[in-house]
Amino acid sequence: MASVTSLTAHVHQRLADALSAALPAADADVDPLLRRSDRADFQANGILALAKKAKANPRELASGVVERVVTGDVIKDIEVSGPGFLNITITDKAIVENLAQRATDPVARLGVPFAENPGTTVIDYAQPNVAKEMHVGHLRSAVIGDSVVKILEFVGETVVRRHHIGDWGTQFGMLIQYLIEHPHELDHEESEVSGEEAMSNLNRLYKASRTLFDADEAFKTRARRRVVDLQAGDPETLALWQKFVDESKIYFFSVFDKLDMEIQDPDIVGESGYNDMLDETCRLLEESGVAVRSEGALCVFFDDIKGPDGNPVPLIVKKSDGGYGYAATDLSAIRDRVFNLKANTLLYVVDARQSLHFRMVFETARRAGWLNGDTKAVQLAFGTVLGKDGRPFKTREGETVRLVDLLDEAIERASAVVREKAQDLSEQEIAERGAQVGIGAVKYADLSTSASRDYKFDLDQMVSLNGDTSVYLQYAYARIQSILRKAGSTEPAAHPELELADAERALGLHIDRFAETLAEAAAEYAPHKLTAYLYQLASLYTSFYDKCPVLKADTPAQVENRLFLCDITAKTLHQGMALLGIRTPERL
Ligand code: ARG
C-alpha cells in the first residue's frame, strides 16, 4: 500500500517539474534545493547554481519557474527574491490535509517513504565480552546500534544484526583449566540463577583462576596447554568453554533486558563463530601477496601507518606462535558478511579507540578484493563516556563503572522524579514508569550527542524535566494523551477549511519534516538528528499549546482541529521515540 508522502516532498516535486520545464536543456533531475525558511515556509536555493551551469540569467530562470508553478491549492505564493531565490508559502489547507492523510494511513508511515533502492546492512553492535562485566562502552554500542537498526529498518533497509562478542582467546585456557580442577562450580539449571548471580559466579572463577595462574607455575603450564586444546577443538575443552559462554549469556540477556532491548540469540555470533574460516582467510591473504611473513608472523603493511618510532605498524593476522588474533577474526567475519550474508554495507558500532584496527582491517579486505565498489564498510565510531569531571568515567576508587549499577541508579533517580509528579499512579505504576523514564534518559543522553563525540554522564541533567531530555519528551507525550482523554476523543477529525494560527502552521510544517529527518538520520547513521527533531517538535508543541487554547477554542470545529494537531504530534513523538528505543508511557 502506497503511503502518504510528505508535503515537503510534494512541493519539491512540483518545483523540480517546473524547473525542468523552464530549463529544457538541463539533466533529468534538477534539484531546487528546497529548505525551510524564516521568511516564507520554504526557500528554493538551487536556481543560482543551475542557471550558472546553463549560462542563463538566474532571475529570469526563477521567473520562468514561478510562471510554471501552479498555485492556489498547495502553493499559496511563490516569488522571486534576491539574485534568484524563490520564497514559497504553503496554503493552510494543504498543511492540514496532508497531515490528515497520515492520521488515517493504515500503515502509519507518518509521511515517511520506503527507500527507493534498499540494500542489506550487516550491523555489528552490542558486543560485550564473555566472563567479563559490561561497562559504559558496551552501553554506547548497544544503544546507538539498536537505534540505527530501527531507523534503517523503518526506511526499508534489510538489516542483519551481528553481536561480535569476545568469546575466544587465551584467557579461556586459564578459566577452563580451573573449572576442570574445580568441577561443579558452574553446575546449575539455567533458570536458577539471575544475571547478577551469573556474573558473580564468573567473577569468582576469574579471580580464583587468576590467583592460581599467577602463583602456581605448574597451573600456568596446564592453563597454556589448555589454550592449545581449545584451539584444536578438543570436545571436553569446548564443552567447558561453552559453560562460560552460556553463563555469560544469562548475564548479557539480563542487562539487555534491563535496557529494554531485544537481542536474539542466533544473532550472537562471537569471535569463535569464525574459527573454521581463519586458516583459509590467512591462506588467501598470503597467496595473493596481501599479507607477508615478517619475523615469523603473517602481516599486512600500510604506507601511511607508522608507529612513533617511524617504523611501519603492521596488522598481524597470524602470530609467530601460530595463534590467530582479533584481526583474523574480523577479516573472516567480513568474508562471511559479504559472501554469505550478501551485505551491501558493513556497519560497525565500535569505540573510536579501535579506529586504527578497523582502518587496517578494511584496507586489507579491499586489497584482497573482499570489499569493492559494491560493498562499503563503515565504522560508526563512538566517543568516550566521561564523568562529570570531564575525565573517563570511573568509580571513586578508580575502577570502571559497572553498567548494571549505572542503570539501577538512573532508574532510581527517575522513579523519584516520577513519584514527585505522580498524581494518580499506583506504586507498581511508579516502578514501571521509573524504569521507562530512567532507561529512556540514559539512551537519550547517549543518542542526542553525535556519536563521534565524547559525552558526560550526568544523571542530574539526564532526568531533568526541562531541556533536551527524554523525560521532557515523555511528559509532552503524556500531557497530549491526557488532553485527548479529557476530550474523550480518540481519532479527532481534521478541518482543512480552517485558517491556521502561526503556532499551528509552525507545528504542522515541522511534523511534515519527519520524513526528511529520518532520511538524513538513516543515510548518516545519525540518531542525534532524530533527537534534535523530536526536541524541536515538543518545543513547537509547547508554544502551540500556550498560544492556542485547545479545549476552549472558539468553535467546535477548531477544538477538533486542534485536538487533531495534538494527536498527530503525539503519533510522531511516539514513533520517533520508538526508533530511539525509548518508551512513551500514556500517563506519567
Ligand atoms: N568485544 C569488543 C570489545 O568489547 C568489541 C567488538 C567489536 N566488533 C568487532 N567486529 N570487532 O571491545
From TrEMBL:
<keyword id="KW-0963">Cytoplasm</keyword>
<keyword id="KW-0648">Protein biosynthesis</keyword>
<dbReference type="Pfam" id="PF05746">
    <property type="entry name" value="DALR_1"/>
</dbReference>
<dbReference type="Pfam" id="PF00750">
    <property type="entry name" value="tRNA-synt_1d"/>
</dbReference>
<feature type="domain" description="DALR anticodon binding">
    <location>
        <begin position="473"/>
        <end position="588"/>
    </location>
</feature>
<dbReference type="InterPro" id="IPR009080">
    <property type="entry name" value="tRNAsynth_Ia_anticodon-bd"/>
</dbReference>
<dbReference type="InterPro" id="IPR036695">
    <property type="entry name" value="Arg-tRNA-synth_N_sf"/>
</dbReference>
<protein>
    <recommendedName>
        <fullName>Arginine--tRNA ligase</fullName>
        <ecNumber>6.1.1.19</ecNumber>
    </recommendedName>
</protein>
<dbReference type="Pfam" id="PF03485">
    <property type="entry name" value="Arg_tRNA_synt_N"/>
</dbReference>
<dbReference type="InterPro" id="IPR008909">
    <property type="entry name" value="DALR_anticod-bd"/>
</dbReference>
<feature type="short sequence motif" description="'HIGH' region">
    <location>
        <begin position="128"/>
        <end position="138"/>
    </location>
</feature>
<comment type="similarity">
    <text>Belongs to the class-I aminoacyl-tRNA synthetase family.</text>
</comment>
<comment type="subunit">
    <text>Monomer.</text>
</comment>
<dbReference type="InterPro" id="IPR001278">
    <property type="entry name" value="Arg-tRNA-ligase"/>
</dbReference>
<feature type="domain" description="Arginyl tRNA synthetase N-terminal">
    <location>
        <begin position="9"/>
        <end position="90"/>
    </location>
</feature>
<keyword id="KW-0030">Aminoacyl-tRNA synthetase</keyword>
<keyword id="KW-0436">Ligase</keyword>
<dbReference type="InterPro" id="IPR014729">
    <property type="entry name" value="Rossmann-like_a/b/a_fold"/>
</dbReference>
<dbReference type="GO" id="GO:0016874">
    <property type="term" value="F:ligase activity"/>
</dbReference>
<dbReference type="InterPro" id="IPR005148">
    <property type="entry name" value="Arg-tRNA-synth_N"/>
</dbReference>
<dbReference type="InterPro" id="IPR035684">
    <property type="entry name" value="ArgRS_core"/>
</dbReference>
<keyword id="KW-0547">Nucleotide-binding</keyword>
<keyword id="KW-0067">ATP-binding</keyword>
<dbReference type="InterPro" id="IPR001412">
    <property type="entry name" value="aa-tRNA-synth_I_CS"/>
</dbReference>
